[in-house]
Amino acid sequence: QSALTQPASVAGSPGQAITISCTGNTSDIGTFNFVSWYQQHPGKVPKLIIYEVNKRPSGVSNRFSGSKSGSTASLTISGLQAEDEADYYCCSYAGTSLSYVFGPGTWVTVL
Amino acid sequence: QVRLVQSGAEVKKPGSSVKVSCKTSGDTFSDYSISWLRQAPGQTLEWMGGIIPMFDTADYAHKFQDRVTLTADESTTTVYMELASLRLDDTAMYFCAKLNRLAGSFDSWGQGTLVTVSS
Known about the structure:
- The complex is a heterodimer of chains A (111) and B (119).
- Chain A contains 1 helix and 9 strands, in the order βββββββαββ.
- Chain A is mainly β and 111 residues long.
- In chain A, β5 and β6 (72-77) form a beta hairpin.
- Chain B is globular, with a radius of gyration of 13 Å.
- Chain B has no helices and 11 strands.
- In chain B, β5 and β6 (57-60) form a beta hairpin.
- In chain B, the strands form 2 sheets. In chain B, strands 2, 4, 5, 6, 9, 10 and 11 form a 7-stranded mixed sheet that branches.
């Protein structure tokens, strides 16, 4: 059982925008701004796409954006493309006792 | 940019140990932190622990602290993860990843090492 909760799946049509939520509590997302998001295509290595809630690493498309309100973080993918079909995992720092916790992952389907 | 290259797949018996290596290159070895994460088939990512070679200190997730040992060899810029008392449910892909401590994110990943525990 994951420490963070995410919807199992989200679907959207090409060109649309979708949002994936990631809910934690005051021990993780609610306290720390160390929220990151990872994209993982089947059989591939996870790739960092958002860090510190809303920052994008160099080379990551600006169609990916992140935000946080209270203990819930969100990832928005705008202008959905076929290549965005993948699993998306949220992650939060949870202090020295738990360190880093992940959500169960959300599969994004491009219809 | 740091490059991380892991050792090959392993098949182990229950009760035995496995040691996976992560060879780093492209940056000053001692300056960063390397974490180990695992992903069981069809499951999410799970942080196991991390080590900072500069300080030769390691932190472990509570779940693994009795079975995992992380070490670093500065002469070969390689980090090792040893998992003892293997169980069937330790079957997973194991990743090393560079932790950006200032951002709390894993920004470079090894290719993964599949560890299969089978009797």
